[in-house]
Specification:
The complex is a heterodimer of chains A (about 375) and B (about 240). Chain A is built from 11 helices and 19 strands. By secondary structure, chain A is an alpha+beta fold. The relative contact order of chain A is 0.05. Chain B is an all-alpha fold and about 240 residues long. Chain B folds into 2 domains: about 120 residues, RNA polymerase sigma factor, region 2, helix turn helix motif (Rna Polymerase Sigma Factor, Chain: A); about 90 residues, Winged helix-like DNA-binding domain superfamily/Winged helix DNA-binding domain (Arc Repressor Mutant, subunit A, Orthogonal Bundle), CATH 1.10.10.10. The radius of gyration of chain B is 25 Å and the shape is elongated. The chains are: A alpha+beta (about 375), B mainly alpha (about 240). Strand 1 of chain A pairs antiparallel with strand 1 of chain B.
């Protein structure tokens, strides 16, 4: 009993550890002098430091260790024990599930459940109200049917369909595939959004892209398929091609695998400032900052590799590697001053490998060590 | 001007920082800036209608909630439903939510816990079979990554701790995991586990640690007892 009383007292001091740090620093240091592993495990200030170190606590423990080198082992043991606890039953959402749930959350309209809820309440309350509710239900349904009928009529008349637009967004670390209403399929890379109508109109097929995607367009000679990315339009009739248009990269790349693709500036009626035709294994690179257009011939299919899970670094700088890995694995890199020393370029190919495997190869050539924890990669 | 160009989403222009209202995971700069902000700030932004803050919360916690829920329910699809409902109600009630959260993590854990309990109750009513319930929830494992545990002494100690862990109550195990794995504070643990106050949470953890130590030292004692007996019998043998 006495024992636990003592611990509570200790905890009470430590909970205010931060505020009292300055005044107590001497007392604290004294106190920790005789701590065993178990004492450390019970010490809130210590556990906080292990789980979420900040500048202040780092400073404290650095100093403390410097003045008590004989306690290094005890402290490290306690730290390792804390860090080794984990859940037995673990699992993660699959990428698709993760994205699917988010979609459902966003789709959820607040009005709908409210109405159902009201109806249910009415049904509960009394018989007359039941009748009213039934009547209301009939009214609503017939109203909805009528509205749909009118909509259908309108769309027949008007070729510019008032379509429902859908947005698909992949966060970092997630790729997905989707089918469009015309049968075309789109493989979306990580950190990519696409915005498209639920149903395409009769005259054209237009989708909006931010990020990178590989399109396999279903052939339809009457309706050209256009990908709009910023000021660039890519138009085809039926073919396979890749569009990479990440904001912040200041350039849009369009690479063709099959068929013919037209790339032009997006204008509203005016003549476009540029318009080019691309053939298979040709790639257009448009740079916005320099108003530059470049057409290159692809030597291999590596630019399409991402959709099969292949990462290809071709003389990539350290920054380029970090940007791609962050996007690919959905992690964050913490790079300190080391950035300056990371010179030279990296070339390598990885096929469906884990982040750890990739980093092992990369770290070898730039000579750094790293730690992956909670989706954060710390470069040391 | 045609109708369609009017409808064109501004978000897909590079020069614009306008986003779709729900295109919340988008802006990487903003995400980084959210990473640097504290829970209180992110929560405030979310409550005042910031969709990126909402997306950020989902991105950061969806998987954690899945793992947390797994301690109660084994069925994947049900857990997905629960996560969905937690976030939908979060979004719907954003303006009525308390401004004073201990942390977003503990708030979501509690919300998930309630959702899961409600779901179990519902399933119980509908089906008698309760195979979806995870009766071994909150079991603790000890990671034995070689880098982490290099020394022999520690490895031996962890082996002992491991067997002692199995003897803890479910509540004790849960509190231990929340404290040492999830990094929740005593107060947050009390909130998630619906205990009276933070000192109840602290006591629960201390008692668990105490039991672990008891069990570990009992083992060591019995080992040393065996060793002593062996030694004595050896000596006896030698001198007889």
């Amino acid at each position: 009993m006495n024992f636990s009383g003592l611990f509570i007292y200790k905890g009470a001091i430590l909970l205010h550890g931060k505020q009292l740090l300055k005044q107590q620093i001497k007392g604290e240091r004294m106190k920790y002098k005789n701590y065993s592993v178990d004492d450390f495990l019970k010490d809130d200030f210590f556990v906080r430091w292990v789980k979420a170190p900040d500048q202040q606590s780092n400073k404290f423990w650095d100093k403390w260790l410097a003045s008590h080198p004989e306690k290094t082992e005890t402290l490290l043991h306690a730290k390792q024990i804390i860090l080794s606890f984990k859940y037995t039953h673990t699992g993660e959402l699959l990428d698709e599930e993760y994205a699917e749930i988010f979609e459902n959350i966003l789709k959820d309209q607040p009005e709908k459940p409210l109405l159902l809820y009201q109806i249910r309440n009415q049904l509960k309350s009394s018989f007359t109200k039941k009748l009213v509710a039934a009547a209301a239900l009939v009214l609503i349904i017939s109203g909805a049917l009528l509205w749909q009928y009118m909509q259908n009529k309108l769309t027949v008349k008007d070729s510019v369909q008032q379509a429902n637009y859908i947005t698909k967004t992949n966060p970092k670390g997630i790729k997905s595939t989707l089918k469009l209403s015309d049968g075309s399929s789109v493989r979306l890379n990580a950190e990519t959004s696409i915005y498209f109508p639920e149903k395409f109109s009769d005259s054209q097929r237009v989708v909006y892209l931010k990020g990178e995607a590989y399109f396999e367009v279903a052939e339809d000679n009457r309706r050209p398929f256009t990908v709009v990315s910023g000021d660039v339009e890519t138009t085809v009739l039926g073919t396979e091609f890749n569009v990479s248009a990440y904001p912040g990269e200041n350039e849009v790349k369009i690479a063709v695998a099959e068929g013919r693709v037209k790339v032009n500036e997006k204008t509203s009626g005016k003549d476009p400032a540029f318009s080019y035709i691309l053939l298979p294994y040709e790639m257009a690179t448009l740079r916005f900052d320099r108003q530059e257009f470049k057409k290159t011939r692809l030597e291999s299919a590596e630019i399409f590799g991402w959709k099969e899970g292949i990462i290809h670094f071709q003389k990539a700088s350290f920054e380029e590697v970090v940007t791609l890995l962050e996007r690919w694995y959905g992690v964050k890199f913490m790079v300190g001053d080391q950035k300056k020393t990371m010179e030279g370029k990296f070339t390598g190919k990885f096929e469906n490998q884990t982040l750890k495997e990739v980093l092992e190869a990369v770290s070898f050539s730039w000579e750094f060590s790293f730690e992956i924890k909670n989706k954060v990669v710390t470069i040391k | 001007m045609s109708e369609q160009s009017k409808k064109e989403p501004l978000a897909f222009r590079y020069d614009s920082d306008l986003c779709f209202p729900h295109n919340s995971l988008w802006n990487p700069d903003k995400r980084n800036s959210l990473d640097l902000k504290g829970d209180k700030e992110v929560w405030k932004m979310f409550r005042s209608g910031d969709d990126e803050a909402f997306g950020y919360i989902y991105m950061k916690y969806a998987n954690l909630l899945f793992k947390f829920g797994l301690q109660y329910i084994k069925e994947r699809e049900i857990l997905k439903d629960c996560i969905q409902d937690v976030f939908i109600s979060l979004k719907k009630n954003r303006r009525n939510l308390t401004s004073d959260v201990l942390s977003i993590k503990s708030y979501l854990y509690k919300a998930m816990y309630r959702q899961v309990m409600e779901r179990i109750k519902k399933e119980k009513r509908q089906y008698i079979d309760l195979s979806i319930v995870n009766s071994q929830g909150f079991d603790i494992s000890i990671s034995e990554e070689s880098r982490l545990i290099s020394e022999e002494y520690l490895r031996e100690r962890i082996k002992q701790i491991k067997s002692a862990l199995g003897k803890l109550s479910k509540k004790q195990k849960q509190a231990i995991l929340h404290y040492y794995y999830d990094g929740l504070t005593h107060q947050e643990i009390a909130y998630v586990m619906e205990m009276k106050n933070k000192s109840s949470a602290r006591k629960l953890i201390y008692r668990a640690l105490h039991e672990i130590r008891e069990n570990v030292s009992k083992k060591t004692r019995s080992i040393s007892l065996i060793l002593t007996i062996l030694l004595v019998s050896l000596l006896f043998h030698l001198f007889s």
